[in-house]
Amino acid sequence: MMPTPKTAVHMALEAGFMNSGQACIAGTRILVPASRKAEFEQEMVAAIAQFPAGEPRDAQTVIGPMVSRKQWQRVQDYIRLGQQEGARLLVGGVGRVEGAEKGWSVQPTIFTDVNNQMRIAREEIFGPVLVVIPYADDAEALAIANDTDYGLSALVLSGSSQRGEAMALQIESGRVLVNTLEHEHLAPFGGFKQSGLGREMGKWGLQAYLEPKTLLVG
């Protein structure tokens, strides 16, 4: 399914905020065409209401607390760092979620006016903190996507499945989703670069437990 701008924004936020951002496959860098940056920012502000944060026992909560006080403090420090680096807060910020002051809740936070050299773009925060990075054309988008020490999972959203698949083939990542957030448990899962060695799932996941034996007979 080829997503509309509104659907694309929702999918991007869903990918970034999964497990409250505490996921190795969370899509924390959101690359947006510079010509449509203002449109996407407006859609993100509107869509954030669909990702309420706070008390995990509340059935309406989508973004729960951090796993520990130490992680909560780490995420707070990164939000402050983003502001110091010159990024602009689109939503969220430092502090706990209103109504959940006693827990380790983090406000869902989106930074914009981010460049890929900022630490909030290059380092894994493991919290509900996303960054919006504009690009001029496909070549720049691909260069930014691949300019990272990691390569576990990526998501391409495009109005053209052919164009999306062409981009996906060039992204240095162990897995790339194109216009979907669905997963396939029989497909190999693993990363490039500092995102690990080997593969899990499917027949590829079994190979690590096998010990090949060679028999040479004259």
TrEMBL record:
It catalyses: an aldehyde + NAD(+) + H2O = a carboxylate + NADH + 2 H(+). Keywords: Oxidoreductase. InterPro entries: Ald_DH/histidinol_DH, Ald_DH_C, Ald_DH_CS_CYS, Ald_DH_N, Aldehyde_DH_dom. GO terms for molecular function: aldehyde dehydrogenase (NAD+) activity. Its EC number is 1.2.1.3. Residues 7-214 form the Aldehyde dehydrogenase domain. The keyword Oxidoreductase applies. It is an enzyme of class 1 (oxidoreductase). Belongs to the aldehyde dehydrogenase family. This is aldehyde dehydrogenase (NAD(+)).
